[in-house]
What we know:
By secondary structure, the protein is an alpha/beta fold.
Amino acid sequence: MSYVIGVDCGTSGTKTVLFDEKGTVVASRTIEYPMYQPKNGYAEQEPSDWADAMIGTIKAVMSQSGVRKEDVKGIGISGQMHGLVMLDKENKVLRRSIIWCDQRTAAEVDQMNNIVGRERLVEITANPALTGWTAAKILWVKNNEPDIFSKVAHILLPKDYLRFILTGEYATEVSDASGMQLLDVPNRKWSDELLSAFEIDRNWLGKVYESCEITGTLTRKMADELGLCEGTVVVGGAGDNAAAAVGTGVVEDGKAFTTIGTSGVVFAHTSDISIDKQGRVHTCCAAVPNAWHVMGVTQGAGLSLKWFRDNFCMSEKETAKLMGVDEYYLMDKAAEKVPVGANRLLYLPYLMGERTPHLDADARGVFFGLSAIHTRCDMLRAVMEGVTYSLRDCVEVFREMNVNVNDMMACGGGGSSPLWRSMLADLYNCDVKTAASKEGPALGVGILACVGAGLYSSVEEACGQIVRTDKVQSPNSENVPEYEKYYQLYREIYPALKQSFKKLALM
């Protein structure tokens, strides 16, 4: 039996999983680390924490598994996207990494648009300039920390710094590089035009690979420390969402996944590049060679339900403790008793502004149609339905881009709710499935490692053999037209309130 290692470098911790060639989990370990917020809106982490966590977790899974090191054929790395790691010519980290959720770069976003032009930036990178993405962070260091910037010799993404630790190679791959806003996304290579415009030395950036290609091999020093063989292949890996797509089998046209975590993500595969000129959704290179993905984000998905729970569901919290069950399970049961449409009550989940499809930081949450007949349970169901309408908005943008979805996977905490899955199935009007494996990104890069090591001939073949479906929720033919009626009304509310949101923000 052959084995592969999947490393997932997240924001709260790094998780490493040892899989056999069929995708079965053999051993797993997570090590957590802190995030630093020196100022409001700042978010940073120490790259050394990621490296220590990766080394610690790999050693742990090898130790607890009893697997022979000769049988481990490859390593794949997934990571939080958009983070900035700067090294000097001696490969020393110059400053803490500015990570994905950092929002300090508003002036640099304006600078990027002024230098290149918003439309041209979208043409090249498939996305508008964004505060959380890497290019703006590089410019921020240039503008605010010139002494540090003058010493830069290499720029890496978080997972690519871990690759450097393992292999000594400066490399990246297309899915994660897409989130730097320096990549020519349609042509899957660095953009000389942007590098010149932003005065970024091309030699600072690693070679760009496809996600399943071999980017280097384990050095003797690291092999000895980890208990692995020198020369073990390390593949490109992927950014976290692209890795999750592989781990859930979303590697062919028509396939997509919905994640309901704090925010909500709808992610669809496409073999033809499609760019939304309005910048409502992100287009990036997929972890499948010569393919892309589109991704819509709704800010207040699971956050809306958590907000409602924390403020209005004290009885469910207390009862859940007594029964030894999850409070969200009891909330599901309460919402199930309410009919489709929540007795004519609609909810806009814009607690934190919105990204898809409105790109409006001033948008706010709304209960629409609230009357004296409504109960707490009606409001609870309206919150869940409102989040689902918002996720359907993402799919509608995909359809405008000729990216059609007929096979949907559900992930994240919300995906474990049978009621929420039924709402998704009814509003998407297609089956909504869950994956048998819950490893997501770690499994995805494990699959990429299997391909790079030659255990499978393609990502699609590997997913066909490894990814399995657990539950399937089909749409209810009676609910579909009823939900469609409420969804179309939902779509009318934001445009009617848009100017009022702006006035409120100025008060």
